[in-house]
Amino acid sequence: MNASAVIQHLSTWMKDYVTTEERDGFVVGVSGGVDSAVASTLACLTGMPVLCLFLPIHQHQAECERAQAHLSWLTRKYGNAECLSVDLTALHDALMATLRGPHPGGADEVLAEINTKSRSRLAALYYYAAARKFLVLGTGNRVEQRGVGFFAKFGDGGMDLAPMANLYKTEVYELARALGVEQALIDAAPTDGLWPDGRTDMDQLGATYPELEWAMDLRDGAVVTDDLELSERQKEVLRIYDERHADNEHKRRPAPEAPIPWSLRCIPASDIGRENSIH
User: Fold this and answer.
1) Dihedral (C-alpha) 4, 146, 208, 231: value to the nearest 10 degrees?
2) pLDDT by residue (tens digit) across 105-149?
3) How far apart, in whole angstroms, are the C-alpha atoms of residue 87 and residue 94?
């Protein structure tokens, strides 16, 4: 990939889009990971105002340190970057205490809380976006957004524009190196930073991003295996990809709209003038 050309293309596209939408800049959540680091840096390259937000909720110290280091790097390097840290931990704890009530939590409730963290962050992003007439910048990559649906619906899957949705994770790393993103962010194991035990994306997905990219290419027809015998690991990765792709289809498509047949809208001629008996 011609990283410098892609960087120029994306930053130009982003600036054109925010101008066309008659907005004044970008809001982006910075997590301490490589995706948000690349997205925030691309936004700064547009020359438009950029508000970078670190929104910790019971965050691990290493993630906090990487996020704060990236915010400091951005403010030193780009005059259009404004960086804020807004701790949402107390808000999250109060919300969960209200939602849980006296009921014990099971495995499903643990996942519900994890997704609620993501949705709380999105609410904060859109608060600042509305207050400043900015657009919320998405940070998801191609495998997450279009492949396995690895995001919270109406959480980190919510955005106004998605500049990296057609980039594989491995390509995001290429851009990160070309942009000069801190090595600590590039070296860190990918994680959504939402689980209290610090589990990584690999822990959750059961496969690495390069493996999932291979599976996605295979299913999209970009890889031919007619004469190739798949290894047991490749078969397992395909199973993981196929299951997540199918299970999370509802995240990738618009909400279904119930059709209303024309026959239900029309009053039969024989009923015209009758008193409506439906109350």
Assistant:
1) -120
2) 666 888 899 999 999 999 999 999 999 999 999 999 999 999 999
3) 13
